[in-house]
Write a structure and sequence with these properties.
This protein is of the alpha+beta class and about 375 residues long. About 30% of the residues lie in helices and about 30% in strands. The strands form 5 sheets. It has a 6-stranded mixed beta sheet with strand order 14-16-17-12-11-15, with no helix packed on it.
Length: about 375
């Protein structure tokens, strides 16, 4: 074999063995595929480009409404401003009595623009005040290429987001149990109305758990979806995608076939032990403050590094005290870290235990 052929052979073999992070494509202007627990981006295509997003806006409307403290079942009258809104509608009537829950289902399943405006007025006092809360929540979630101008996604000059930012929002939505239940509902009869979810993937894709469709002529078709398999949840987002149903199926299929969720530690597992002087027990066990998992593909390896605040402790050590941090690395790059805390407290051996003190006090009681 000539020198050139050997070089070509080695190069081809190297490429074959390398992880294939960009193995799919879409018809979308912007797209992203994210693992929900870790937030790892598995695939992206112009994912940070701000664009019109249409009705996937309503994910933020629903999340802010559910965090507002307004009761789901508390009745209120539909304000005149929420009647006759352009676009998709649940046909609210002025003065009609509804509940927030009914509006949320109408907004998320049928994509009612009137329902979204009614939710904003109900939970924010006015649409303007509610939109300010939406933008504040976007900042809190780290949505750096997002700004909302209304609660329903109708085209506006100052209303935009990116595929990546919408994936951040979807992660937050899935953590809200009520919202996760609503977006995964196929059909429901509630109040005086019945709704069928516009998200076809709930019927067509195994493991789909929602989330939201959108469309305007300027924005094109927008879609945020999520699916769960083998303990892993993937979130797909496409903006301006003429073939979004097929693209989401392809993205999700590729993600599930290429990556698996590696459980590194759970919050009950002892990650390390530290010596304790002056205590009733000689060591304390440190556990992660939360479960630690990360999606990896063939050829990738995870490594763990622990850094202690101090290597020798002195009693007392209260339960839950932060002792250090666990750092997770993939390919030599830090991808996550969580605090390590004391699993159980260690009492000072110079003081009686609470149980003994209680018994002494009880013996000293008269009669």
């Amino acid at each position: 074999m000539s020198q050139l052929k050997r070089i070509v052979f080695v190069l081809c073999l190297t490429l074959f063995l390398m992880p294939t992070a960009q193995a799919v494509g879409t018809s979308a202007s912007c797209a992203v595929l994210v693992e929900a627990e870790s937030g790892r981006v598995l695939y992206e295509q112009e994912s940070h480009q701000p664009r019109l997003i249409a009705s996937i806006t309503k994910l933020m409307t629903a999340l802010v409404a559910l965090e507002s403290g307004c009761g789901l079942q508390e009745p209120f009258q539909v304000p005149d401003q929420a009647v006759g809104v352009e676009g998709s509608s649940i046909y609210l009537k002025p003065g009609e009595t509804v509940t927030l829950e009914e509006l949320l289902y109408g907004m998320m399943l049928r994509s009612g623009n009137d329902a979204a405006l009614a939710v904003a007025i109900r939970c924010g006092g006015s649409a303007e005040q509610f939109v300010a809360q939406m933008n504040a929540k976007a900042v809190q979630l780290g949505m750096k290429n997002t700004h909302f101008a209304n609660p329903n996604g109708l085209n506006a000059e100052n209303h935009y987001s990116s595929a990546y930012d919408m994936a951040l929002l979807a992660r937050a939505c899935l953590k809200n149990e009520t919202l996760a239940r609503i977006v995964s509902t196929k059909t429901i009869a509630i109040g005086q109305r019945s709704f069928t979810n516009h998200n076809k993937l709930l019927w067509q894709y195994e493991g789909c758990v929602g989330l939201k469709t959108g469309y305007t002529e300027k924005a094109g078709r927008t879609l945020v979806s999520a699916a769960q398999r083998d303990g892993m949840t993937l979130i797909a987002v496409t903006l301006n995608d003429s073939d979004d149903w097929r693209d989401h199926k392809s993205l999700l299929d590729w993600g599930f076939s290429t990556f698996h969720l590696e459980r590194v530690f759970d919050r009950t597992a002892c990650a390390g032990r530290l010596p304790v002087s002056g205590g009733l027990v000689p060591v304390v066990c440190a556990v992660p403050a939360e479960d630690v998992s990360y999606p990896i593909q063939k050829g990738e390896e995870l490594t763990v590094r622990i850094q202690w605040h101090q290597e020798n402790l002195t009693a007392p050590v209260p339960p839950g005290e932060e002792l250090g941090a666990l750092y997770l690395c993939c390919g030599g790059k830090e991808v996550a870290h969580v605090p390590l805390t004391a699993q159980q407290g260690v009492s000072d051996n110079r003081a009686p235990s609470l149980g003994l003190l209680q018994r002494i006090l009880r013996l000293a009681e008269p009669g």
